[in-house]
Amino acid sequence: MVKVSLSHISIVSSLLIVFSIVFATKYWRDDKEIISNDIISYYAYLPAIFIYQDISLQFAEKQNDDVRLKIWYQIAENNGKVIKTTMGVSFCYLPMFVIAHQLAPAFGYVPNGYTLPYRLSIVLSAMLFFTIGLVYLRHILLRFYNEVTTAITLFGVAVGTNIVNYVVFESGMGHVFSFALITMFVHFTIKWYERQSNKSLLLLGTLGGLIVLIRPTNILIVLFFLLYGINSFAAIKTRLLLFVFKWKQVACAVLCAFLVLVPQLLYWKYNTGNWVFFSYSDNEHFFFNDPKIIGGLFSYRKGWLLYTPFMVFAFIGLLFNKKEVRGAILVLLALLIYVTFSWWSWWYGGSFGARPFIDFYGVFAFPIAAFIGYVIQKSRWLTIGILVITTFFIYLNLFQAYQYRNGLLHYCATTKKTYWGNFLKTKSYDTYWEDLIEIDNEAAKNGERDY
């Protein structure tokens, strides 16, 4: 008989809440939703390769508007048409895409890659990876924490953060997929250091390659692999000796990562004439000398901790982290904040909160659990207080996701006045739209980024 635990109940409850919202809203029914904005580029590889057999994208001009307007590309120096984003997210869409393509004609839909079954396939892909991420996160947390701490942490991450928006409303964005893959990467990192099996290391290489193929800056997760368990200078020496002793296995893992990247390199070579192509060429770049850390964390425009206050627990929990992960997470978090908010568009366009951090919620769950576990051990009344605060954070997160989706919380122009003017309201106040402060993207690309 299968024993049902609190952490199981937490996952099931989280999935029921999030999936209920998915099926209540049914955004995939609207042909203007799901495959839109950045998702147009993430997705374009699949119809181009599997339906139109034309990665040069010449087919696009011959299609009707339903397809033609959903193919975005840039022109390379050799006049080749090239998709701006890398193809990692499309790898994650692929299983559901294949099913949708087989079923579309049977249900009377045109199998052109853009009708309802294909949109639904993207939503189902996000739901699948969200589930996988939570399952692996449960396994990770139970290695270090008890059922109660694990259950609260899981529920908070799943329902109390902006990841909900990217399962329900913007399912095709890469963040839910990266969340699952990075959480798996953490799981197999821990597993490899426990047993040092070749299988775990090869899986780490493959996962690492796919993580980078989805979002190149997420290569930072490799720091977790390198620094896990390092808590002294003696441990550094032992780690280096381990890598020397296991150099063949490590080399094979690196090869696995490279092989995942090969299709992208071949695509760039075919369409641009170069093995590597930098598609963010419209003066889009990092300002490493001017990271907008305060704005990125606390601003009304897009502050991570304002829009996702549950993550405050992660910062507090750094003080109580387990020694195995303390250094790794501290270094990773510091670099991630620095790199993320050094991008010219530190608010990351139209988005709900600081979306790049969603990818690493499986990592930040460690300090969250550390803080919650500490509180539970300390005092019953403190525990009740934390549960009340967590409940409010979850409510606020879901409500603000609703506001964001309905224009009550602007995707990039929110100010102090508009935030508090619409706080916990379902209708905007009279001068809301006039009080928003829009961003000048061209000025921001040239360094004027103080918003």
UniProtKB/TrEMBL annotation:
Record flagged with keyword Amino-acid biosynthesis: no
Tell me yes or no: is Transmembrane among this UniProt entry's keywords: yes
- Transmembrane ranges, per UniProt, are 6-25, 91-110, 116-137, 200-216, 250-268, 304-320, 327-346, 358-376, 381-402
Looking at the record's lineage, which domain of life comes first? Bacteria
Keyword entries, A-Z: Membrane, Transmembrane, Transmembrane helix
Question: What name does UniProt use for this protein?
Answer: Glycosyltransferase RgtA/B/C/D-like domain-containing protein
Question: Organism source for this protein?
Answer: Acidiluteibacter ferrifornacis
- What taxonomic ancestry is recorded? Bacteria, Pseudomonadati, Bacteroidota, Flavobacteriia, Flavobacteriales
